[in-house]
Every structure is written in C-alpha cells, then in structure tokens.
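Today's session is about reading a structure prediction critically. Students often jump straight to the picture, but the first step is always the sequence itself: look for stretches that repeat, for charged clusters, for runs of hydrophobic residues. Only then move on to the predicted structure, which in these notes is written as discrete structure tokens rather than atom positions. Here is the chain we will use throughout the hour.
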Amino acid sequence: MLKVKSYEDLFDKYIRTKKIFESVVLIKNGTGETMFSKAYGEKTIDSPIVAASITKMVTAACIFTLIQQGYITLNDSLLDFYEPAYLRGLHVYKGKDYSCELKISDLLYQTSGLADIYEEGKDNIKRQAIISDTFISFEKNIALTKEREAHFPPNYKANAHYADINYNILGDIIEKVTKCSLESVFEQYIFSKINMSETYLPVSEKEYIPMVYYGDKQLYRPQFIMCSKASGGCITTTRDLMIFIQAFFRGELFDKKMLDSKQYRKLQLSMCPIYYGSGYMRVKMGGVSTSFLGQGDLIGHSGSTGSFAFYYPNKELFFVGDFNQMKYPTLPIRFVMQLAMFTP
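Below is the predicted structure for this chain, in token form.
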C-alpha cells in the first residue's frame, strides 16, 4: 500500500506510478463541503468525461422510477416485453434454454448468468473497440450473446456475473415501456430532475464525445460509446457525477428503500472484491486485505475508462472522478479504497 500524508499525496502518487495523462478527483462530505478537489493534465471538474459503466446506475434509477409509477415490477418476465421466439437461445446452460425464465430482477442484480461479450472471448467487444470504432446494435448484442453459453441458470444460488447485456436489455425495456428514446427518459427522469446540466446520452457525433486513453494511445470511439447506451454510454462531468451519486443514495430520484437489497452477490473472480446489489457495486473493504478490516463498505460504481463515483457511509463521504485510462480497469477501485482508508 502507498504511504501517504494527504489526499493530494495519494492522488499525485497514482499519477506518477501509472500511465495517467489526465485525471480529476472531487471529495465531498455529507453536508456538501468540499474536502478535496484536484485535476491533472487538461481536466477540470467541469470537463466532459465518459461515465462508462456508472451509466448503469442511471439505468437502475429509471427502472426504480418505473416500478414506483406502477409500470413494471422486479418480477416481470422478459416474456412481458419480447416474443418467445426472439428470446430463444439467449440463455442456454448445459443444453437447457432458460431464456423465457429471465426476469427484470435478474438483469438489475446481475444474476441472469448471461455471458459478457464485452470482456469474454479472444475477439471480445472491448478488444475490437481498442482496435477500431464500431457500432454494435442492440440486435447484434443479442445475437452475439446467443453465441456464448451462459454461466449458470437465472438467479442460481449466490451467483452473480457482471455482463453489459443485462443493462442493454433493461435500456430496451425502458424504451418499450415509456415509448420514448432512452436519452429522453434519462433527461426527464434524472438529468433535468437534479440539474445535471452537462450530462447527456449522445446519439450523434455532433455531440461532444471525449477521447479516452489505452496506455499512451488516444482513442476516439464515438460509435462504440453511442451504442453502449444503458450499459455505459453517458457523457458527464465530475461536478455532475457528484450531484448524481448524492441524489442516488439520498432518495432524491426514487424511494431509497428500493436500495435495501436482501443480498449482495459476489461477482466473478476477475472483479474481486466487488459485490453487486440493485444497480450498483459494493466494495467490501475487508475483502482485499486485513488492513481494511472494520472499515465498512464503498457503494457506487466504476467505469472501464477510469471513471468512479462512490459513497462511503462509514464516514459520510462521496468520492467521484476519472483517470481516463482503459488499460488499468481496477485503478479507480484501488484508489477510492485508499482514499477511504486515509480519511480521518
């Protein structure tokens, strides 16, 4: 573990020890006081950043809103939204097709067992995106998922497996239920409601989409980001992320009792020490090292581009920011854990 004397010291050491070309961090306490803020390179707290998988929390917030409004329930079957023939072959495990048994809750909690085409396989979508910009439609996402065997039956024992397809399907369901585009639902239900004035779900290259780094290579991938939609397509700022993470866990977007998950489930080994709840990650501080025992949990989300937004209930602190670096996807988690450990 890095030995540091301050938040600034920790931030500076992370910048020096990894290939980080631009970064930003913002820390606030429960009263709204800024505890620390620093930027590096060309970034400021108002610079556009790729939210990446933090977008899943936006999608979850919309699902909770639709549940409160009586349009859907967690127990709704995918058969309520899709024909059996369309679903057939989506979830096959050991020769049995479970596709028509999938529910909204399986998608939200990452307990569907569906394969993650973003990370799995030699020619996965992430590797393709690093090489070139490609738009992969929702229909193509479904087709590619059908080509891979599921990892376990839906809602099986204590299993969870992180897969973008779960949230891509949720986004499609949101559009079907509301009869509106996902970008307009996000704007109406979330962004306008809490004044996230610089956040949007891009649908055209005319809208600003930031470049991201993979190692020392700059990648401009507007098509890929636009097709990520409900699983990772939002563009935001660090300032707006702070507004969102506070609103999400304070019940300003939906009744926060809906976050009282009966259980968190541990994700696949590659994502250790992360558990998944109702649309967000739970990082058990004691799950990595005895140094973190008794320090509580972090709840929120990180993104594969280096973005992060976490709430630390033990100290009533909120950590948000971005490293803008795809090569080290675990970097934000490690950084936020050490921020939490350093906090007096």
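Discussion point for the tutorial: The chain has a mean pLDDT of 92.
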